[in-house]
Amino acid sequence: MSDDDIPRAAGAPARGALAAAGWTRLSQLTAVTERELLALHGVGPKAVRVLRAALRERGLGLAGDPPGTGR
Fold it and tell me: From the CA atom positions of the chain, what is the Rg in Å?
């Protein structure tokens, strides 16, 4: 079984780009900024929205997001 818990709704290109960068767990993305994600080829605004929503469900956010807002 894979430890990958990145939502499929983020899209295959985004999931591949995240995996290539070494990020396969949502919890790892709490140390990553939106700008860093968008700099990856294959990660666009939709993927960032999906990732933020998944993080928010767990009470987490991207690096630099105000606490509790998911943004």
Answer: 11
Instruction: Count Cβ atoms below 10 Å from residue 67 Cβ, excluding itself.
Output: 8
Q: Is 20 exposed, middle or buried (0-12, 13-18, 19+ CB in 10 A)?
A: exposed
**Amino acid at position 2, single letter:** S
User: What b/e string do you get for 27-66 counting C-beta neighbours within 10 Å, with b at 16 or more?
Assistant: eebeebebebbeebeebeeebbebbbebbbeeebbbeebe
pLDDT-derived band at 68, boundaries 50, 70, 90: low
pTM of the model: 0.88
